[in-house]
Design brief:
Length: 266
C-alpha cells in the first residue's frame, strides 16, 4: 500500500513540480540565492501542498494513535522516500556545498520541509518513527555541512588576511570601530567573527560536531590574526608598532591565550 501511494500519487506530483521547477530556472520571483531565497524552497513547499491535497486524509489517518492504518508509514516510505530519490536524481547540484550561499538557502529549505512533515505527526511515537526512518537519515546525509563550514572559513579568513595586509596603523589615531576596539585589524576581526554567526551563514539543526567546527573557526580566526600581526608588525607584535623598547613578559600556562586575545583587541 505504501508503494502504491508512492507510485500512483506522490511520484507524478513530484515529477510535475520538478519539471516546472526546471522550466522556471534557478531564480524565482526576482530573488537571488545570495539574498536567501533558495532554489528548493518553493519546490518543497509546492510538492507537500499537492501531496496533502491529494492524500492528506490518508496520511492523517495513518498517523492517528488508534487508527487501523497506523502500521503504515506513508510519510516516510511514500512521501519522503520519493522526494529524496527524485530530487537527488534531478537536481544533484542542489545538495552541493560548492556554492555556500546556495547550499545555505537550500539547506534551510530542506529543514523547513522536514519540519512541515513532522507537523503532520499526531503523536510522539509517529514523530520518532519518522525521524528514525532510513529515508530521513538518507535525506540528512546528503547535506555535507562540514565542507560548507570549511569553505565559509576559507572565505572569511581570506577577508581577514586582506584587511590585515595593509600599512602599519597609527596607534594615535582615534578608534575607527566599536568602542571596545581601535586597531583596523581588530575591527576586521570583530566583523569576521560576526559574519561567522550571521543569519545568512549560520545553519540551525546541525550536529554537535559541526557546532564545534563553528567554535573552532572563531578561535582559528583569532589565531590567524595573531600570526599575521607578528608578520606585519615584526617580532614585537603590536609593541613593535610603537617602537617601544619595553617588552611585556609572556604569561605562563593558560593565560597566554587570554593575553593574545587582549593584545589583539587593543
Amino acid at each position: 500500500m505504501q508503494d502504491a501511494l508512492r507510485t500512483v500519487v506522490v511520484a507524478p506530483i513530484v515529477a510535475s513540480h520538478l519539471a516546472a521547477h526546471k522550466a522556471a530556472g534557478p531564480v524565482r520571483g526576482g530573488a537571488s540565492i545570495a539574498s536567501g531565497e533558495g532554489t528548493l524552497a518553493h519546490l518543497f513547499t509546492s510538492i507537500l501542498e499537492s501531496v496533502l491535497a491529494r492524500a492528506g486524509p490518508l496520511l492523517s489517518a495513518s498517523l492517528a494513535p488508534q487508527s487501523p492504518l497506523r502500521g503504515f508509514d506513508f510519510l516516510s516510505n511514500s512521501v519522503l522516500a520519493e522526494v529524496n530519490e527524485s530530487v537527488s536524481a534531478a537536481l544533484p547540484g542542489a545538495f552541493s556545498p560548492g556554492v555556500p550561499p546556495a547550499f545555505h538557502a537550500n539547506y534551510l529549505a530542506a529543514q523547513r520541509f522536514l519540519d512541515a512533515l513532522e507537523v503532520q505527526c499526531h503523536s510522539r511515537t509517529a514523530l520518532d518513527r519518522l525521524r528514525a526512518s532510513p529515508h530521513y537519515a538518507s535525506f540528512m546525509k546528503k547535506w555535507n555541512t562540514s565542507i560548507y563550514f570549511s569553505l565559509i572559513y576559507q572565505d572569511i579568513a581570506g577577508e581577514l588576511e586582506d584587511a590585515v595586509a595593509v600599512a602599519k596603523p597609527d596607534l594615535r589615531a582615534p578608534p575607527s570601530g566599536p568602542a571596545s576596539v581601535s586597531l583596523p585589524a581588530s575591527v576586521a576581526l570583530v566583523a569576521c567573527l560576526d559574519r561567522a554567526t550571521a543569519p545568512n551563514v549560520y545553519l540551525p539543526h546541525v550536529a554537535d560536531s559541526d557546532q564545534r567546527i563553528m567554535a573552532l573557526m572563531k578561535c582559528a580566526l583569532v589565531l590567524r590574526l595573531s600570526t599575521r600581526l607578528r608578520v606585519v608588525c615584526g617580532p614585537g607584535g603590536l609593541l613593535g608598532l610603537c617602537n617601544c623598547p619595553q617588552r611585556v613578559p609572556a604569561p605562563r600556562g593558560r593565560q597566554v591565550w587570554h593575553a593574545q586575545v587582549s593584545v589583539l583587541m587593543v
